[in-house]
Structures are given as structure tokens and as C-alpha cells.
Amino acid sequence: MFKENQIKLGIAPIGWTNDDMPELGGENTFEQCISEMALAGFSGSEVGNKYPRDIDQLKKALALRNLQIASAWFSAFLTTKPLDETAADFIIHRDFLYEMGAKVIVVSEQGHSIQGLMDVPLFTNKPVFSEEEWTKLVDGLHYLGGLAAEKDMKIVYHHHMGTGVQTTEEIDKLMMLTDPTLVSLLFDSGHLVFSGEDPLTILKKYLPRIKHVHLKDIRQDVVDRVKRNGLSFLQAVKEGAFTVPGDGGIDFSEMFTTIAGSDYQGWFVVEAEQDPVKANPFEYALKARQYIKEKSGL
């Protein structure tokens, strides 16, 4: 289905240890995490909070397991803080990823975000940007995109639950207002379905601008309970709203076919923040790897 060397398969460390809730997987070490990734058949990873920031140390640990760094999350505050503050942090982040060989930088606007707030209902308190904030966001992303281009890298914008860019309408607006040469899109199946969007519509509409893919599944019964009971994003994670491809309700077959027939070249990163006590990360990594092989041939 896929052309040779079209896709690299990675998995995010958030299934082993959670960045937003360190108590989830606090007992799992960095070495266990990357060893189990490799053992499950993945060739890359994004960067988690337990990963060493010493470049030589990290490179050595990954090389021993034949793993690469695909990217890493960057929290932007373009709507709420001076651009200089976000840019200074971004340059440090960019340079680290550049040294690790990554080609894309995952950017998500966290101004007014509720994704990290434990007791704020996800669906009723979602932030909505004003026109002034949209202007700040777009201008800021163009600036960050220019900084990335200095290293021949791209920023990929992560639409995300609990933020100002979550819905189809908001993604459409972001794509309309931004320069395609400076701002690309990250496609995340799980966040789109969680929000109530049609992932195939987004995929087909913006495929030429999609430069990074997160493969995330959801448990629809949990999502329904999150809406019904007014739970927060973090509570949804603890309840098990997310899971790996092949374990939830999303059929990835047409997504794989669509991407295989395109010019997309880059990473598929399995990502499913779960409580590792309830969902053994190695077991779920194996489950995801088997499902991807069955559905895509990768």
C-alpha cells in the first residue's frame, strides 16, 4: 500500500509516563520506555519528560535501540504573552530537535487552554479566540515558521482538545489565514473524533499541508460519559478516553489508503495517553503495531 520509505513508524512516550500528570507512569523509567518501544517494533519516538536533554546521552541511548526522534511538543503562548518570550523558548526547542535529527516541530497554542486543568469541563469551557487573538496567533506562527525554516525544519500545528484550535471551523480558519510555506498541519485522528469532527474530511482537505501524523484511537463510550458528566480533559484521560489504534472505535483503513496514495512522507506516531497501570504500555504498543501492520502493510 505504502511506497518504499514513505512512512516511519514511531510511538509517543506518553503511554508510559504522562507529561501533564506525572503520577501516571511515575514508576516507569526512560530506559524501560524506549526499550519497549523498540521491542514492539517501532523505529522512532517523540520526546517525553523523562528523556535526557543532554544530546550525546540521548543519542547514545536511542542508537543502542535503533530509534530516532520524530519531533516534540512545543507549547506556544502567542495569544497571551509577548512574542519574544515564546520565540526565545522556541529557539532552544528548535535547536535541540535539530541536533536530534527531527524535521518537524509540533506546535500547539496554549493561550487560554484548559487541557491541563483538572476540574474545568472540557466541552462547556473550551476557549474561543477573539479576532485580535487570531491575528496574534497567525503572526506568531508565521514568525516561528520562519525560525524553523532557518534550520530547514517545519512547524506542524497540533489541533487539540481544550484549546482555541480544536474544531473543523477553527482548523479551516487557521489554514485559511496562514502561509502554507510557513505553517503546516499535524493530523491527529483521536482529537478530531473526540471533538466530533470527521477526520477523513480534514485529512483529504488538507493533505498537502499535513507533515506529521498522530495515530490515536478513542473509546466512544468514555467520550460520551465525558460530555454527559462535564469532565475535564485530564479526567477524560484518566477515565480512558484515548487508546491505541485497533483498540477503540476508529477504523483507520481509509485514512491509510488516502495517505498512501499521496505525496506524504514522514512519521506516523502512535499516541495514546492512558494510565499505564490500567493499560500496560508494552502490551498496547504491541497491539497498535499489529493493527497497523494488518491494516496498512507497514
From TrEMBL:
<protein>
    <recommendedName>
        <fullName>Inosose dehydratase</fullName>
        <ecNumber>4.2.1.44</ecNumber>
    </recommendedName>
</protein>
<dbReference type="InterPro" id="IPR036237">
    <property type="entry name" value="Xyl_isomerase-like_sf"/>
</dbReference>
<dbReference type="InterPro" id="IPR030823">
    <property type="entry name" value="IolE/MocC"/>
</dbReference>
<dbReference type="InterPro" id="IPR050312">
    <property type="entry name" value="IolE/XylAMocC-like"/>
</dbReference>
<comment type="pathway">
    <text>Polyol metabolism; myo-inositol degradation into acetyl-CoA; acetyl-CoA from myo-inositol: step 2/7.</text>
</comment>
<comment type="similarity">
    <text>Belongs to the IolE/MocC family.</text>
</comment>
<dbReference type="InterPro" id="IPR013022">
    <property type="entry name" value="Xyl_isomerase-like_TIM-brl"/>
</dbReference>
<feature type="domain" description="Xylose isomerase-like TIM barrel">
    <location>
        <begin position="38"/>
        <end position="294"/>
    </location>
</feature>
<dbReference type="Pfam" id="PF01261">
    <property type="entry name" value="AP_endonuc_2"/>
</dbReference>
<keyword id="KW-0456">Lyase</keyword>
<keyword id="KW-0170">Cobalt</keyword>
<dbReference type="GO" id="GO:0050114">
    <property type="term" value="F:myo-inosose-2 dehydratase activity"/>
</dbReference>
<dbReference type="InterPro" id="IPR023952">
    <property type="entry name" value="IolE"/>
</dbReference>
<keyword id="KW-0464">Manganese</keyword>
